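Sequence in, structure out. First:
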Amino acid sequence: MGTLYQSLDTKRTQFRRLILLPGESGDFHDPLFGTLEMVWFDESPEYEALSYVWGPTSPAERMVLNGKEINITPNLAGALRQLRWPGSTRLLWVDALCINQGDLEEKAHQIKLMRPIYALASGVLVWLGPGTDATDAAMRSIEKFDKAIWSTYDFQVNFMELLYRPWFTRIWVVQEFVVGWNPKENPKIGCGSVWVPWISFFTAWAHFNDNLPVIDAEYTKQYQQSLSSTFERSWIDQVTDVPPPPTSSLASLEDQILTGLRAAFGSNFLPQTGHANMTELLNNIRANPAVWIARNAVIRHCSYESPVAKAYWRWLELRKIVPVAYCGFLMHARGTVAISQKSLSFEKILKGTMNLRSTDARDRIYGILGLVSKEARDAIPVDYHKEPAWTFVPTMSYIIQHEADGFALLGLMWQTRHFKTPIPSWVPDFTVSADYYDEHNPVFLRGSCANVAWSWKQDTTVSEDHTTLSTSGVSFGRVMHIISFVDGDRDYYVDRFREIQTLVNDKCPPGQEPLWRTLIGIRNTDPEVCKPFAQCWDVLMGRAHERGGEALKMFQDALLPIVQKRKFFITDTGFAGVATPMIREGDTVAIIPGMVRAAVLREADLEDLKIHIKEAMKKQVTVFHRITAFAYVACHDREEFERLEKAGLENWKDHVCLNREMDKFHII
């Protein structure tokens, strides 16, 4: 953009504001015109700050800025047209226009000012994008503050479309919304032509979260009604004769039918079909394939193709993209930062924003600097010349050394990293979104012994060059045996489970927790949660008879998805467990204080790592490790551990699994 921008006076914390001019004819689609004006914080300039998502750059829209034609994104153009006043200018701060995006030094300087820019604005305007019939209906209901409507199915579906807007998945908007605080003019949230106070929107959002079962209930209701109608005589009589399926595909049809019936009516579905037992039902399917093929088409339509079904699956997907807890995080963050004028820890922010993304990976950290303390901001240099990975290194170094629960972040973000630059293994890839079904559910890979390490006193230091983390931990020994799982049928997995059971009986001490608990990595001891797993396991291992296909469903829905992503291992000290896929024989499994999971450590070949470890070598360290995976470690005496835990577990060495000396690990 060359001469479009004059240099800012960084000594007086100068920034630019946009003077948005009215349209020439008053038409919504009039060309956009504006000028930039340099202002200083100490002059208390008037302006409103826009919080929005840049969005796709194509097809570009045109705007005349300071007399020059420039390209802007369609989403920004839509926002400016909605915000433009018909007969007067409007003063705004818009990052894409007010910061010279081509000047990395200016950009780094202005990022440090984001907190005061939004905090001192006369108002914050959150733009979600253009409206649709669904979003307009939802926004009108919020505008009227009609709580009765907020509990309805239609509102739930319409409001869901608002949450699908990119604003709810971008990292920069968090601090833009959170720090903006003007007692006279609270933030407004706009979609299309409708703008509402932020408190109204968030109240509706909380109602949406409280009424999530409404969408599930409507889906189940339609499913049950449609499927029930297929057992009426009038429906059956209308089914035309269809050639029976090949014998080879009959079993597949039976599985689909049973899955559909179970989804609609639960495990006790036989009365709905008019059959006394499973044998009678299966015989009917084989004798009347035409009816059951047609019925299966109804199941498929109700499951995936009807409008209600599509809304249901869209709702399930939304829970991964915008977790239910995100609303509460934003409310808490705003109350802490804007209202109470306090700061948040990196650990709390990064946990609360695991679902968010940024175009530039470095912005995953830079985009939240306005929410942390000045000490934390000063410790993280804003430098767009550096690789993204090396933005995360000083960040994690600060977190480990200054935040009590910060080390837990590494256990929450275990996925394979995407960095080409070799960086320390104790530094997470903060760009990887957490998976709803694993990372947001702390029972997975969180064993009882590892769990107690959460409260241990940490003995951790980071070298001056940020390459080496020195810490103490309890080792469970070296991995001696590994059993992997590949794709296979139920019989394949049963054979593998029996192989594992034999290995456990041979290598592990008596009193080992049940193998099913180890395989799924679950710490929960609630009988209501555990009983179905135990029953499924007994059926799989031939110790009990299957009833109504419940064990098969449990295996397919709960057990199989977990074990497919894990590897089973046994160490040379007799500890068994499951780990993420990168574990190998020879690795060490250890508890490190502060982590929520046991870590898998691998001795590092320094010649291959190309990481500077000069600081560590000063201490005459000869063995270094890298964190390569995380694990659930089975407890040798769960009942005793639970008794000690309830008693307070003042001395963790009282438990057999933990009665050992701490080892020192140097992790790079």
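Second:
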Amino acid sequence: MEIQITANTRNELLLRNEVEFTLTFEGATPSRKEIIGKLGALLNAHEEKMALDSIKTQYGSRIGKGLARIYDTPEARARTEREYIISRGQPKAEAEE
């Protein structure tokens, strides 16, 4: 999997960087957790400060485009992002019986 940053815009009002990227991969589309890990390593950001908004691929293509947001603090992410965006890519909680 290879990630190329196409745009990195600073949003001072929301204390975040908005990152657009192109993803090249072999086989199945990588999971959100793998993409966040690779982006975090590439941009020196911790996963708890990141939110992966979207990944779009075309049928039969091994190239995807995505949008991620990297916040200055985990608190800024919790204040701004919707809960379902934050929970994407996390393991599902086991149902208590």
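Remark: The helical segments are 32-43, 74-80, 83-87.
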